[in-house]
Amino acid sequence: MNMKFITSAFLAMSLMACSEKSNINKDSDIESRVESLLSQMTMEEKLGQMNQLSPWDFEELAARVRKGEVGSILNVVNPEEINKIQKIAVEESRLGIPILVSRDVIHGYKTIFPIPLGQAATFNPQIAEDGARVAAIEASADGIRWTFAPMIDISRDPRWGRIAESCGEDPYLSSVMGAAMIKGYQGDSLNDPTAIAACAKHFVAYGAAEGGKDYNSTFIPERVLRNVYLPPFKAAVEAGCATFMTSFNDNDGVPSTANKFVLKDVLRDEWKYDGMVVTDWASAAEMINHGFCVDGKDAAEKSVNAGVDMEMVSETFIKNLKQSVAEKKVSMETIDNAVRNILRLKFRLGLFENPYVVTPQTVKYADAHLQVAKTAAEQSVILLKNDAQTLPFTDKVKTVAVVGPMADAPYEQMGTWVFDGEKEHTQTPLKAIREMYGDKVNVIFEQGLAYSRDKNVAGIAKAVNAARRADVVVCFVGEESILSGEAHSLANLDLQGAQSQLIKSLAATGKPVVTVVMAGRQLTISDEVEVSDAVLYSFHPGTMGGPAIADILFGKVNPSGKTPVTFPRMTGQAPIYYAHNNTGRPANPTEMLIDEIPVEAGQTSVGCRSFYLDAGNSPLFPFGYGLSYTNFEYSDLKLASDKLRVDGEVNVSVNLKNAGKYDGTEVVQLYVQDKIGSVTRPVKELKAFQRVELKAGENKTVTFTLPVSDLAFWRYDMTYGVEPGDFKLWVGTNSAEGLSADFTVID
Q1: Which residues contact 429 (CB under 8 A, 6 or more apart)?
Q2: Which residues, at least 6 apart from 597, have a Cβ–Cβ distance to it below 8 Å?
């Protein structure tokens, strides 16, 4: 469902609000207005624009706004208060510069969508765009015009809690989904009252925090930075992302908030970015803890000299930069450029013409918004296992036992970063199954465990008794929302509490067990998968997760989600990702594992290869994996030519058949390997994908046109381009399976 129709109801209102600003989006007009305003500003007013506060006291905030000491606020969500503050800024401050109001609107505002990792599992950029559009409409109803999303950190370590906010491990998928979110937040024009400025974060490499522990250092060399971690941010620039945020980590010893290389050399000089850069929460002042800055004055100087425009909450800029300019440690030009970037954004948002809240409150939880959220949740669910066609439930199923701590946990299923979500509006699986299918089946509910970390096993017996009285058991397990997100890293990725014991006890009854996992990251669930007859994985699905999962269980919806991250068998395999380098001694599938090793075996008898004795080398589930209720067959892979010039195109076609009895959607994935390079290249890389809908028995020819230029990378001499040579491509259902063909690129 495209969200453009949703805004049509507000179009007349928006046009009225914008009637006086028909020209404000013209770059020349904006630049002229920026320069005119800048020329009138005192040093104190300039530093005020560079200052963002999270206020606790309204009167104190009002006084500071009146004096021009505040450019932006965050975490104020009362539209009446926001209008009062804007009135003070516009009518009582000397220059009448409006306040930019911001908030962490990460995967929905009131109507909560699947967490970003779940949205990535849809492999559908339209889902990401629509979700962000709904969030922008609802958030702007409370006066919010800037969000700190999307988070497009490449995330390859599930121990890192913020993987939940990411689009996963792959640069291409993250680029596509991130760009779609930016488009949704910002709409067709930033000066539409329902548009909110997006913020690409965290710049850069934050997702590679050492040990998966939040805020930790990273050690990413420039080539890997450019080939893996920077592409989503470059895509954000190309998508017109209004703002960027620096990250908490230091990379190779340099904190991102003072990293001239990424903020100036790459972002400004190479990419020609003219948006605004903000620190993360107090990340300027935290450089003192890093041991990179002596004090707040040093932190302010290093931040702005590196290219930061606005400081979030720690106020080192406003307290110190006047003196720094006087001492010539920071140039006036640097200050002016920062203020230009801030004012430019405010003009682009139309805040000078329309600073007040105009989006009606009735947009929150609009029926259309809930439907879009349900569609997103449906497409995000991944079918990991389905032995003996346990799913979907047929008419033979008369009684369903619903058990588990996540079956009726409205707060928990919303996931991380839902400051404004309201659990009263969340529709849980238990509620949905009863309301939507209660006339078809008898539902027995026994929670078994009170919450995901619960170790009290007293309730498991009741759950087992319920299972014995049912035809099938659906066990909802996973993570509470508090277990993922910022500062919520884990050293052990197993199911918490007694959840594993609950699943195994249910399986021991002999009744078919469907395990549904709702979590903020991929968990190590190999034992639970083995004893379950079917497994559905739903990265925290949000407000409408219940109805989405219910329709999947009963076959109204055929699951189509794919894993946007690799699932490890054990925590010790992390970080784990499909696009790794091969090494000189790659593993093979026949390596001897630990329980197969004879006593007193020879030291080299297990094979001198790159693998774990206890886990092997393969993941539990590869990137891009996801089953369907139907069967898809790939055949007849064709290349239009197997010899291509550097400026040519790879034209690929494959036949896709729905060989099953259900209509379904397959995500067809195209991977490429550069066999020999001036530096080692990944074993394969995702280069394109398509969601293809097929009726039962239907065939389609799926075609891809891939510019050869998409095979470029940062080479040995740190130039960017395609190296002629031999390549291999795969088209298939996931990163581990597919039809293959070879081709050669020539000069």
Answers
A1: 402, 406, 407, 408, 474, 476, 516, 545, 546, 549, 550
A2: 605, 606, 613
Q: How far apart are CA 198 and CA 190, in angstroms?
A: 10
**Strand pairing of 100-103 and 146-147?**
parallel
Residue 60 CB partners (closer than 8 Å, separation 6+)? none
Q: If you ran DSSP here, which 8-state letter would residue 699 be given?
A: E
Q: In whole angstroms, give the CA distance from residue 379 to residue 122.
A: 5
Q: Which segments of 122-230 does DSSP mark as H helices, in order?
A: 125-140, 171-186, 222-224
C-alpha–C-alpha distance, residues 187 and 667, integer Å: 27
Q: What is the C-alpha separation between 374 and 137, in angstroms, rounded?
A: 17
Residue 265: DSSP 8-state: I
> Where are any strands of DSSP class E within 67-150?
72-74, 100-103, 146-147
C-alpha to C-alpha distance for 691 and 687, rounded to whole angstroms: 14
Is 387 in contact with 534 (CB distance < 8 Å)? yes
Strands 685-694, 664-674: pairing kind? antiparallel
User: What pLDDT is recorded for position 2?
Assistant: 54
- On whether the CB atoms of residues 552 and 559 are closer than 8 A, the answer is yes
Rg (CA), the chain: 27
pLDDT digits (tens, 9 = 90+) for 157-206: 999 999 999 999 999 999 999 999 999 999 999 999 999 999 999 999 99
Cis peptide before 193 (omega within 30 of 0): no
CA dihedral sign, ordered 395, 399, 404, 406:
positive
* CB 410, CB 454: distance < 8 Å: no
**pLDDT band at residue 477, thresholds of 50, 70 and 90?**
very high
Biggest alpha carbon–alpha carbon distance for the chain:
85
Number of H helices, E strands in the chain: 22, 26
Q: What is the dihedral of CA 539, 543, 549, 554, to 10 degrees?
A: -170
Mean pLDDT along residues 18-35: 69
| Burial call 19-55: b when 16+ CB within 10 Å, e when fewer | eeeeebeeeeebeebbeebbeebeeebbbbbbbbbeb
- Tell me whether residue 617 is exposed, middle or buried, using C-beta atoms within 10 angstroms of its C-beta: 0 to 12, 13 to 18, 19 or more: middle
Summarised one tens digit per residue, pLDDT across range 94-118 is 999 999 999 999 999 999 999 999 9
430 vs 227: CA distance, rounded Å: 45
Please write down the HEC assignment for all residues of 482-551: HHCCCCCCCCCCCCCCCHHHHHHHHHCCCCCEEEEEEECCCCCCHHHHHHCCEEEEEECCCCCHHHHHHH
Which amino acids are annotated catalytic?
280
pLDDT at 7 over 60: no
pLDDT band at 30 (very low <50, low <70, confident <90, very high): very high
Give per-residue burial for 218-248: e unless 16+ CB within 10 Å, then b: bebeeeebbbbbbbbbbbbbebebbbbbbbb
Interstrand relation of 442-446 and 399-403 (parallel, antiparallel or unpaired): parallel
Burial class (CB in 10 A: 0-12, 13-18, 19+), 616: middle
Per-residue tokens: 208: 């590679």
Q: What are phi and psi of 161, to 5 degrees?
A: -65, -30
Q: Is the pLDDT of residue 679 over 60?
A: yes
**Secondary structure element (H or E) that encloses residue 435, with its range:** helix 429-437
Question: Which residue spans within 207-265 are E strands per DSSP?
Answer: 243-246, 250-251, 254-255
720: β partners: 714
| Contacts of residue 351, Cβ cutoff 8 Å, sequence gap at least 6 | 98, 100, 145
Could you tell me which residues come within 8 angstroms of residue 534 by beta carbon, excluding any fewer than 6 positions away?
Answer: 383, 385, 386, 387, 390, 391, 512, 513, 514, 515
Single-letter amino acid code for the residue at 363: V
